[in-house]
Amino acid sequence: MLSGFPASSGTDPDMQIRAYLLAIDGIPLEAVWQAAKLFIAGKVKNHNRAFAPSSASFAEQCRRQQAVIEAQSRPRLKPQPEAPQPKVAAYKMQLLRDAANGSRNARRELAKMFPDNPIIAKAARHEEALR
Known about the structure:
Layout: H1 13-23, H2 29-41, H3 55-73, H4 90-100, H5 104-113, H6 118-130
């Protein structure tokens, strides 16, 4: 990797490699490989492409790649199937639409169908009182 950065030619490669090895201790090789590829390809943000990355920057990118690899290897959750909902007859849906649009006849029909519903019953009693 060091040979890919011409401005780093004056540094001692053995010391630089030792610093990298200390910085990446315990990080999986796949993450190290992916991070090195990103630096060489110039795909790491805020990195001066003329210089090799510092050991700390390289280790940080390795940890990011490790997190990406771990996230990709996690099992995916399958969505829970929706519980079947009871079907509502089409004429009841039409009555609800009509009642929502202000139809008094539709509200009366709904009040007859659902006498225990206090909202519908109250609206029907209110309309009866207005007549």
